[in-house]
Amino acid sequence: MSAGDAAVAPAGQEELLARFDALVAGGGTVEPRDWMPDGYRRMLIRQIAQHAHSEIIGMQPEGAWLTRAPSLHRKSVLIAKVQDEAGHGLYLYSAAETLGVDRADLLDALHRGQQRASATFNHPALTWADTGAVAWLTDGAAVINQAPLCRTSYGPYARAMRRVCQEEAFHVRQGYDLMRALCEGTPEQRAMAQDAVDRWWLPAVALMFGPPDTEAGGAGARTAAPGAAVSRRARAWGIKRHTNDELRQRFVDQCVPQAERLGLTLPDPAIRWNEERGHYDFTPVDWDVYRKALGDDTHWARQRIAHRRAAHEDGAWVREAAAAYAAREDTVPEEAA
Amino acid sequence: MNRTREGAPASWEVFLRARRGLAHQHVGSVRAADPDAALALARDLYTRRGDPLSLWVVRSDAVHAASPDEHDPYFAGARHKPYRYPEHFPPLTEKGPEGDDHE
Amino acid sequence: MTTTSDAPAEPATRRPAAAAAAGGTAPAPGGGTDADLAVHLVRLGDDALVLGQRLCQWITRAPTVEEDLALSNIALDLIGHARTLLTRGGRLDGSGRTEDDLAFTRSEREFTNALLTELPGGDFAVTVARQLAYTHYAVLYYEALAGCADAELAAFGARAAKEVAFHRLHADRWTLRLGRGTPESARRMRRGLERVWPYTGELFDEDDVVRRLAASGTAPSPAPLRPVWERRVAEVVARAGLAVPAPSWQARGGRAGLHTEEFGPLIAELQSVHRQFPGGTW
């Protein structure tokens, strides 16, 4: 099914656009061969590719601890989790391909720095507790971010996300469970857990939800504007369902009581319950905070891409062998042993 | 195959029978150079949980479909034949539609 | 096709194993069948653990994301096997050690995995060659174990044999693709086979522990499985357009705790977090 054949239907652009808008406004699902506006296609490709890249780059910080997990149970859990991330990357690349792009091109764009993964993973996983903090906080943020995407307007993306979300729930729980074990352990283990939370809170709360896009979220009217414009368009097309700042608030509301139960302190002195709003207050993620969290152009940001590129280049001869074999043996299935 | 670039494998659609009694359902796609590799990858990717029964892979470019411009000639005819539905006819019980065939 | 849980313990025709010479592998004197079985299960568990650890080192570095997924699937199964085997071993030897005690607190001299499983990664072809050798052996061995009298062990053998059978498909598939892919991949595959083949013999070694277990029908010896193994791997290698190497020597020592120098760093990495937090709970 070549995905890209947007139909040149016997209708004019305007009529097609009107039909598309009506479909999306009515909560309908857009399927690969439907006509869609170029901007919609581009926004989706960008978002899905970034999401897919984030899954496979996100394997690195945790993957680095697979060989060091301190119990065989935790090792098994971590393998299963990192494996899910590879799987999520693949679901998402295949959703992106229905829009007429080739995964090899998307990977090239990642390797060349033209497309990016979430900046969350520009941060290093320095201790074992980081694997717990990443799962509890950044996967927790991802679930909040992604749950609405299960109803996103583009069918293949929504279907991929339904699979992803089912599996992410396991990630968050195991992360919390890992942190709980550390917090109930020796003082040194607790200290390791707190240190990891101190370092992962900001990437989670800032980067997993994207830049501020409302004044309520802490951006000034002027600085909120660019984020808000993108956010509004994404919502009009049914790609997104909520503003970044709404989802960020939901995340904070969820984490604060969890951290309390663990006996860990979230590194934000402004966190306190606001009776009037019915939400926790926290230090607004304005553009300054956001930029500080980005960690662009650091050793680790470069290392993530270098690691990925090295794997790709080292494996080139293997992929060439597989392609050469397939070309030679074309379609003669070997006997399964 | 329209993706002949070196090292870029073909795309395969994956169908899974998730449990006994269900038909194979389309679950997504994988990329692989050949059918055996595609099947194994589909197994790793789509059957990590549950107790699946069977898996098919079909080369994506082997799926033949009506194009969107052919939508109306193909499918519009289905809409206007109300007499294909039981609701088009009076129910068979005395009690009217509410009593028809309900437990 | 199977094997031989009831095969007579045919005397090893090769050089007798260096086992019992050193390390923690000598059966506890007078410890009886349980002690022997403990030694044997810990060996098998160490094979699975160490090979799983080597495969974990691939993850995020594999030739494709699909292969990251495939290798992690295999690693996950292997760690599962290690857990079952080490748990049982720790119970049987009377030491009360858990799977984690065995994995994370023994010194490298106390590990009894075959050297094959600990060889450093090398390129993808070396990994495929090792997987080919190990999975064909492990399917045969676990199938044999599935026929043993101990119900728990038999059930484990049956489950593990099925899992490893999928790993074997993976190894066979890649052996064919690399062997019959490009000249470069064929060259690397040939080199991979040459690299690992001297280390395959140890998988089939018999020592007194194994002989006693086999004689009493407690657990099968791997030695009689070797001809079937040789036939099967030769068949795959031939389909790949390659030949099974005929190494002039066979490496041994792992079963006796005499490891490669590369093994120390592997164990140090495995145990680093666990050892860093004495008294920690995970």
UniProtKB/TrEMBL annotation, chain A:
EC number: 1.14.13.149
Organism of origin: Streptomyces griseomycini
Alphabetized UniProt keyword annotations: Oxidoreductase
Keyword Metal-binding part of the UniProt annotation: no
First-tier enzyme category under EC: oxidoreductase
Protein name: Ring-1,2-phenylacetyl-CoA epoxidase subunit PaaA
Biological-process GO terms, alphabetical: phenylacetate catabolic process
Cellular compartments per GO CC: cytosol
Molecular function per GO: phenylacetyl-CoA 1,2-epoxidase activity
InterPro entries found in the cross-reference section: Aromatic_CoA_ox/epox, Ferritin-like, Ferritin-like_SF, PaaA, PaaA_PaaC
UniProtKB/TrEMBL annotation, chain B:
Gene3D superfamilies: Phenylacetic acid degradation B (3.10.20.520)
InterPro entries, A to Z: PaaB, PaaB_sf
Tree of life domain: Bacteria
Pfam families: PaaB
NCBIfam families linked to this entry: PA_CoA_Oxy2
Name of this chain's protein: Ring-1,2-phenylacetyl-CoA epoxidase subunit PaaB
Species the sequence originates in: Streptomyces griseomycini
Organism placement in taxonomy: Bacteria, Bacillati, Actinomycetota, Actinomycetes, Kitasatosporales
TrEMBL record, chain C:
Source taxon at top rank: Bacteria
Protein name: Ring-1,2-phenylacetyl-CoA epoxidase subunit PaaC
Enzyme class: oxidoreductase
Keyword Oxidoreductase assigned: yes
Lineage summary: Bacteria, Bacillati, Actinomycetota, Actinomycetes, Kitasatosporales
InterPro entries in the cross-refs: Aromatic_CoA_ox/epox (IPR052703), Ferritin-like (IPR012347), Ferritin-like_SF (IPR009078), PaaA_PaaC (IPR007814), PaaC (IPR011882)
GO cellular component, one term: cytosol
Keywords: Oxidoreductase
Low complexity composition-biased segments: 1-28
NCBIfam families, per the entry: PA_CoA_Oxy3 (TIGR02158)
EC annotation from Swiss-Prot or TrEMBL: 1.14.13.149
GO biological process: one example: phenylacetate catabolic process
